[in-house]
């Protein structure tokens, strides 16, 4: 399904496309820079704030472009300082954006490092057996503007609490493309969005602070490897053999490990940077000794970092999170073998921060409320 909004989201425009539009309506080129400054540096909420633009141009822009392509309908903070924004898009679809705060050592005025997790699709078509987004199925791709606007929403939320807005820089430190959806399946809208975030006329946010996570779409991994930017890559591996991956990730039947591993190698070589292998620990499925041994071989061969993520329970699915002891055994095996490894003690567990879960719960509650109302 393709959603065609009444107006184009302004956050989907590049400097070139804005200049082309301005030329069409016989406006000078320098207006593009002024508009972009208002959007990304001064973080204007409305066209009326753009006081150095002629009134007639502001009116024209407001007829042509949408400045608020998503509406914040819900902020929910968890005990561990993870905050989830539920955003409503023009067609009523819901997406999630998560603010993850990690304590900062050497505390200055701001006492936490912020990572923003963004979505790229409404739902997901890839149907991984453990994932809430996969359960709901795919509804549509997000547009470039809808992807960028998630970060702008966060800036608007955070700007009042940081000095960074005054310095005209982003109000957060890292972006991870790990929310709802498979980013590489929406490559055509994702790449322009990442370029807008990265551009000096845009959010001016470093490519090395942006991580794209994929379940393993080999052709797109190679395409991204060939782009000039130094975006970081994370692979949702979750199984160290085809047998285990096939069981929980249908994508592995299209792109099995013998294709995926060389693609990761190519990415690592092209960017001279470690790729991260995400590995959810699911009891008895992939937390066995055999899997840890095979994962060690893969990680050492690729020179990759491994991030272990104890499975976050999804309502309606039978998978289990292993005990802390089992998690530790797996972690220690990797560590002992010399693998660069971390274990994520899940952030935002209490607000269902894993992939698509808040949306699923909200939709269920909405459906129940509607059902009750009839
Ligand atoms: N589609 C992309 C990015 C979104 S998913 C991908 O699969 O990489 C982001 C991460 O959340 C992935 O590593 C995914 O496997 C993980 N994830 C999904 N469901 C989870 C759950 N219930 N518990 C823990 N992690 C989960
Ligand atoms: Fe889609 Fe990623 Fe969830 Fe798999 S883990 S269903 S690819 S969002």
What does this 3D model show about the protein?
This protein has about 375 residues and is an alpha/beta fold. The protein folds into 2 domains: about 10-65, DNA polymerase, domain 1 (Orthogonal Bundle); about 70-374, Alpha-Beta Barrel (TIM Barrel). It is about 40% helix and about 20% strand. The chain has a 10-stranded mixed β-sheet, with helices on one face. The chain has a two-stranded parallel ribbon with strand order 1-2. The longest helix is centred in the C-terminal third of the chain and has 17 residues, at about 355-374. The two termini are about 30 Å apart. The model is unreliable at about 350-355 and about 370-374 (pLDDT under 50). The structure holds S-adenosyl-L-homocysteine and iron/sulfur cluster (SF4). Iron/sulfur cluster binds next to α4.
